[in-house]
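Just curious: can you write a single protein's sequence together with how it folds?
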Amino acid sequence: MSSNRRGSIARAIALVAGAIATIAVVVGPAEADPIAQAARTLDINEHADLRLTRRSGSTLWHSGTATGTLPGSVSARFEMTLTKVTGTVTIRPRSGGSLTINVVGYAKSAGVNARFSGNMAVRKGTGRYKNAVGSGTFDGTVNRRSFNATVTAKAKLTY
């Protein structure tokens, strides 16, 4: 093979290799490694004012506002007995996303304005809180005539 022809083949190979390298840089790898993000932990201190929006037997629906670490709107559905409340609370912070929380609480006093306290656990999240997990405690008062309530909650959230 002549040296002229060998030089042409070498230049062609170099051009093809350069083209492949350029395509690889522009297009990127076929399967990029996922970018790991560190989980964020947030200490939550929240106050909510809830008003009764609907009642059917022992099931109560509330809505209201939360102020504190995650200010925004709150909606809730509770099953109540004389001494125990279970339910689901959804917080929609103004910053976006939502958190759905399971709650179990117990009455601490009787009378028209009854005190209660309990535990809560994050069931699911959306948006920035998609993979949220967490738990905490709450306490508050409920007016047993209007069923309006005020609640203070403390929790640790990882998302």
About this structure: The chain is about 15% helix and 55% strand. The longest strand covers residues 41-56. The CA atoms of residues 40 and 159 lie 5 Å apart.
